[in-house]
Specification:
The protein is of the alpha+beta class. The protein folds into 2 domains: about 90 residues, Alpha-Beta Plaits (2-Layer Sandwich); about 70 residues, no CATH class. The chain is about 30% helix and about 15% strand.
Length: about 200
C-alpha cells in the first residue's frame, strides 16, 4: 500500500466512532456467538450411558467406567483434556444428552474439579450374573422400537420391570441354559447359547 499511514488513520477514526474491536474480558464478560462451542455439560435425564460419545472422542477426553461396588456405569468427561470439537454432541445417541454451553472460562485455582459425569444403573444377565449394559440404555431402545421390542425379551422385560409389572420367577438350580431361560434378561452371549441349545441342542 502506497500510503499506509492513511489506512491506519482511517482505522483509528473508525475505532473512535464505533469503539475498539477487542473485548474487555476478563474485566467485563464477553458474549460469545450463538454457535460457540463452550464447556460441555450432560443432560442427566437424557443420557443412557451407551458409550457412543466415548467411541467418537478424538482426544480421549471421555471414558466409561464400570463401578461394580455401586452397580453403575459412569460416563466421565475430562474437561481439561477436551478439545471441544463437538463430535460427542453431534453423535450422541439420544441427540440431546450432551450439549455445548456459552461458558468458556475454564481457569481454576486447583487441578481438581474439571471432571463431570453421569451414573446409570447396571443391567445384569440372569444366567452369568455379569453386567452387560445400562438399564437406561435398554429402556431407551425398547421405547424407540415400540412394539418391535417384544422380539427381544431383555428389552421388554426390562421395560416391564421398570413399570413394576414383573414378578420374580423361580429359577432352576441346575446349570442351564434351558428353553425357559430365553424369557429372561440375558447378555448377548448367554442369549445366543440359550437359542442354540433350544434349536440345535448344544
Amino acid at each position: 500500500m502506497k500510503k499506509p499511514k492513511l489506512r491506519e488513520l482511517g482505522e483509528a477514526i473508525r475505532a473512535i466512532i464505533h469503539g475498539p474491536y477487542t473485548t474487555k474480558f476478563p474485566y467485563a464478560p464477553s458474549v460469545p456467538p450463538e454457535a460457540f462451542r463452550g464447556i460441555i455439560v450432560f443432560n442427566e435425564d437424557r443420557c443412557i450411558c451407551c458409550g457412543a460419545c466415548v467411541q467418537v472422542c478424538p482426544a480421549n477426553a471421555r471414558e466409561m467406567v464400570l463401578d461394580l461396588a455401586k452397580g453403575v456405569f459412569r460416563n466421565i468427561h475430562h474437561q481439561e483434556v477436551c478439545v471441544y470439537c463437538g463430535q460427542c454432541v453431534r453423535y450422541c445417541t439420544t441427540r440431546d444428552a450432551i450439549k455445548h454451553t456459552q461458558e468458556y472460562d475454564l481457569s481454576k485455582l486447583k487441578k481438581e474439579g474439571y471432571d463431570n459425569f453421569v451414573e446409570k444403573e447396571l443391567a445384569y444377565c440372569e444366567i452369568c450374573k455379569k453386567p452387560f449394559a445400562a438399564k437406561a440404555h435398554l429402556l431407551w431402545i425398547a421405547n424407540k422400537l415400540g412394539e418391535l421390542a417384544f422380539a427381544n425379551p431383555s428389552l421388554y422385560l426390562t421395560q416391564h420391570e421398570n413399570l413394576g409389572l414383573t414378578e420374580e420367577v423361580a429359577k432352576r438350580g441346575e446349570v442351564g441354559p434351558y428353553r425357559s431361560d430365553s424369557v429372561r434378561i440375558l447378555c448377548p452371549d448367554c442369549r445366543r447359547r440359550t437359542y442354540l441349545n433350544e434349536i440345535w441342542g448344544y
